[in-house]
TrEMBL record:
Residues 273-338 form the HTH luxR-type domain. PANTHER family: REGULATOR OF RPOS, TWO-COMPONENT RESPONSE REGULATOR ORR33. Residues 19-135 form the Response regulatory domain. Gene3D superfamilies: 3.40.50.2300, Winged helix-like DNA-binding domain superfamily/Winged helix DNA-binding domain. This is DNA-binding response regulator. GO terms for cellular component: cytosol; protein-DNA complex. GO terms for molecular function: phosphorelay response regulator activity; transcription cis-regulatory region binding. It comes from Variovorax beijingensis. Keywords: DNA-binding, Phosphoprotein, Transcription, Transcription regulation, Two-component regulatory system.
Amino acid sequence: METTPLARTLREQGANSDLVLIVDDVPDNLAVLHDALDESGYTVLIATNGEQALQRAAQARPDIVLLDAMMPGIDGFEVARRLKADAATAHIPIVFMTGLTETEHLVAALEAGGVDYVTKPIKPKEVLARMNVHLQGARRARQDARQAGQARNALDAFGYASITVRLPEGRLIWQTALARELLQRYCDTRAPETPPVVLEWLRRHAPEARQQGIEPPALSIVRPSVGATPSAAGPSQGASLSLRLHRQTGQDDDGDEWMIVMREVSDTAVIEAMSLSLKLTAREAEVLYWVVKGKTNKDIGEILGSSPATAKKHLERVYVKLGVETRTAAAGVAIKRIRELQPQFEI
């Protein structure tokens, strides 16, 4: 989770203890809670009005907010709505402190973004117990986010990219750096817009994936020429973008979120992978690639700008390195390896 310099300084001063923001316009309430939390080892910030609360939350990124519901000026409900509307503070759990016990006020507190509430007069032990529950949940969420981020970074490092799309509205809510580059290159779109061809594919297959747990067929997009629109790729059309529906990552009453993993597939990428994995020179890998594609030595010579005899010599060296004796056997070894390295590639 991103932090600010102030947040880091406060946590260092508090020996990395949880940082609590208390918001109340009554000094006696602040004093009671401040002392109780301080004695329990928390690092405490205070705010006496809504504007101050928003400023301190943005600067310090507390781990939890204890928020008075009724204050002059910006009340607690509005403070909560603004914190939840800002991506930098939306993750912070908010516990309301209220003297209002009518159901409509308690519902309003939860609808504004609160995870819990305590009633006044404040009982410090109760507040500490409620806080501990929500802080544990927030820690788990942060750990999950870190692990998810590490997994996504690993995907990028291995040439894979990923995006998360929210249905039913079809908004792209998250993407790796590589995914941003690929979507711009192949679809000329930018977040939060999801490419229409991707959205159509996702809407068609998500219900089946959700209900039956079946992975739908991959989507393949050919990079369009200038002025053209992206389209589904046919076999053997050079560079293309392959997308697979990975898994559902979230669901609530308003919709659900889907993670899509993509990878650029091209002749060049496959040839490089074959060269590295089979310990072939670049030219030997090229020759073997075109053998897999069913080309003759004459065809290969023309493609590579050499003679059929040169193609034959390269192929003979490939036989030795792979421990095979025939063209068919060499192609078989190559196809098996390609399917391991680039399962989405159309052979």
